[in-house]
Amino acid sequence: MDRNRKIAIGAGVFSILLLALLFYLLQSNERYAWSETYKDDGDQPYDLSLFKGVLEESGKNFEVLNGLFADTSYLESSGNTMVFIAGYAWMDSTEAELLKRFVKNGNKLLISTMETGKTLRLLTDCEIDEDETLADSKESEVIQMYGEEGTFTLSYEVYNEPRTHDWVYIEAQTCFEQSGFFELDGQRYCNLITEVQGNGALLIHTTPLVFTNYHFRKDSVFNYVNNVLAKAEGETYYYLEPGPYDQPSGPQIGESPLKFILAHPSLKWAWYLTIILALLYVINSMRRKQRAIPVRILPENQTAAYLDMIYQLFRKEGRHRDIVQSQVKTLQSHLRNKYGLNAQKLNGEFYELASKKLKLDKKYLEQFFKQLERSRFNSTLSDNELLKIDREITEFYLRCP
After folding, report:
1. Cα 296 to Cα 292, 299, 303, 310, distances in angstroms
2. How far is CA 261 from CA 14, 21, 227, 265, in A?
3. Which of 19, 103, 201, 388 is deepest in the core (most CB within 10 A)?
4. Is 229 in contact with 218 (CB distance < 8 Å)?
5. Residue 114 belongs to a domain with what CATH number?
6. Residue-wise pLDDT tens digits, 191-214
7. pLDDT at 262
8. 291 within domain boundaries
9. 126-149 pLDDT, tens per residue?
10. Distance (Å, rounded) from C-alpha 265 to C-alpha 267?
């Protein structure tokens, strides 16, 4: 086995191992999914199970709503609070009408959502122009949150490292009471508003990350959330399940080691370069090596010498017809090999085809081959006649393209 074949086999084995490793990494799931799930039934970093559990143990009446239509008895209540940590969820106009009815009946509604602009348009009683911007966002890794008991930093973290995030804030509106804000680059942005509607109040919060397991376990965040809930305190807490509303429109972070690598720009490019270099190595190893082509010396053409010898021998013996027969066979072989013409069948089809391929006059071809046929079977050819036929054959070869 030569060296190039060994390298090619080694490169092939390496590629198979690389693909197997890639498959394994894609199939292996980490315990924690670092994405904004906003579910309340798990222990993932951005689930809501801790917040839901604390709310349930708060000493207030607690009731879980599995949607707004399954049981509408909450609409007849008064003095209660509904909490909906929506994340990236959205609602339609029918659901919004039920929530507004709940608020105006003397209840409070706290919604924390990244889809703030859509939510405001559906729930607020303010007269808002269609072209007016209700919410916007700023991109940053860290923001400073302000609460009644102090400040703290908040970041969207993946594997405990801050990531760039879009922090949503509410544009200033005259009919909204600004109840909370965060600071970014020295500027303050409203992230909590209160609007009185009928006998109740609507509270919209733009930073749902504070309710997730990862941040809620911190004392500063826990106190901040308690202060927010205090603004919407009621006799009973209706907890609206996020599951049926949650949409996969938020940023998704990988749940496997490979996706973790791809989530970091430096690791991502290192991974890509490794794959590219491996592929280049395989291609270079498997490339066919260019070898020098040996110079072949063509054998000398013995046919002409052989024919000349036969010609001289037959002429010396007076066998002129045999000479013509040999010349005719040579001519037929030449026409068949070079032009694909069968000169053994001298018919109209042959003359038509020969005239096109040889670019010679059809009458000339008919006369030439008829003369050859007569000479082939003439046993009394003289030397002069033989020389004449030889000249005509030579002239024919010269006239062929």
Report:
1. 12, 9, 20, 30
2. 21, 14, 38, 8
3. 103
4. no
5. 3.40.50
6. 999 999 999 999 999 999 999 999
7. 66
8. no
9. 887 877 888 999 999 999 999 877
10. 6
More confident residue, 370 or 263: 370
27-36, 154-163, 250-259, 352-361: segment of lowest average pLDDT: 250-259
Q: Is the pLDDT of residue 96 over 90?
A: yes
User: Strand pairing partners for 190?
Assistant: 170, 181
Backbone angles phi, psi at 14, to 5 degrees: -60, -40
Domain limits for position 153 = 49-251
Is 120 in the same domain as 236? yes
Residue 371 CA: distances (Å) to CA of 204, 310, 322, 367: 112, 22, 15, 6
The candidate with the shortest Cα–Cα distance to 221, out of 114, 170, 146, is 146
Phi-psi label, residue 159: left if phi above 0, alpha if psi -120 to 50, beta otherwise: left
Q: Coil, helix or strand for 87? A: strand
What DSSP designation does 260 have? H
Is 39 contained in some domain? no
Q: What count of other Cβ atoms lies within 10 Å of the Cβ of residue 13?
A: 10
Asked, for residue 293, whether it belongs to a domain, the answer is: no
Please, which pLDDT band fits residue 248 given cuts at 50, 70 and 90?
A: very low
Measure CA 222 to chain center: 42
| Position 33 in a domain | no
- For residues 21 and 79, state if they share a domain: no
Q: Which of 148, 334, 298 is nearest to 225 (CA)?
A: 148
Q: In this predicted structure, what is the pLDDT of residue 309?
A: 60
* Residue 45: pLDDT over 80: yes
Chain Cα centroid distance, residue 357: 55
Give residue-wise pLDDT tens across range 158-190: 988 999 999 999 987 767 889 999 999 999 999
Same domain, 84 and 172: yes
Triad 339, 345, 351: Cα angle to 5°: 60
221's CB contacts (< 8 A; 6+ apart) are: 152, 154, 210, 215
Q: How far apart are CA 376 and CA 142, in angstroms?
A: 106
Among candidate residues 194, 202, 245, the one with its CA nearest the CA of residue 69: 245
pTM for this entry: 0.57
**Residue 134, both tokens:** 């209700």
CA distance 175 to 273: 55
Same domain? 364 vs 224: no
As for how many domains the chain has, the answer is: 3
